[in-house]
Write a structure and sequence with these properties.
Layout (H helix, E strand, L loop, with lengths): L1 H17 L13 E9 L4 E4 L23 E5 L5 H12 L7 E6 L14 E5 L6 E10 L5 E9 L4 E2 L8 E2 H13 L30 H11 L2
Parallel strand pairs: 3-4, 3-5, 5-7, 8-9
Antiparallel strand pairs: 1-2, 1-6, 6-7
Bound molecules: zinc ion.
Length: 227
Amino acid sequence: MKKILHAILIGIIVLGLAQTTVADPTKAKEPVDRITFIHYRDGRVKVEGRPKPAKTPTCYKLLGIKWKRLPVSYVISPQVNKDAILAATVEWDAHTRANLFGGYEVDESANFDDYPDGRNEYSLGNYPQEGVIAVTRIWYTRYSKEIVEYDVMFDSEFTWGDATANPEVMDWQNIATHETGHGLGLGDVYQSVCSQVTMYGYSDYGETDKRTLELPDIIGLQKLYGR
Ligand SMILES: [Zn+2]
């Protein structure tokens, strides 16, 4: 009886996972699943397809997935502020011994994918819901939990710029640093006591605090990629 129950349980789990299965251009020998973080201006973050999160210490959250083949290269749309993306990747790289990010290219074909295409892309686009600041989607192998791709889309609904020069804009670098944290395997944190950390899930016009990592962000990063 126990065995039958076990089989049924496995069946249910497999069925549940199958719903999020997507095509896999990386030709891995296992299925690739995805998680999508949708950031709304009013502070909501909708997460689609999140795996069971690891135990969550204060002010950082590990998604239970990480890059295993480094460095990660990426593609930036010419509509996105390139310097902000570079600064975001440099900031994460500066706090771990791993060499996280390698080369990049600027290419107008950079877009936000439904299915993985092997390119880690930063683009500007319009998410089909109101009030979305940015969306990050991560693809990872189901069993070995290896991140194989991430895409970030900044929403054209907002006015983007450098908030240190104009507080009425959504700051490219601020949001880029947060979204890149997702791309590395970190989740959002929501407790108001964590409001200063880069991976805090809420943002707004004029915010620049998230450009630089705080200690909890660094601890989370180093758990994944070393000190
Ligand atoms: Zn987030």
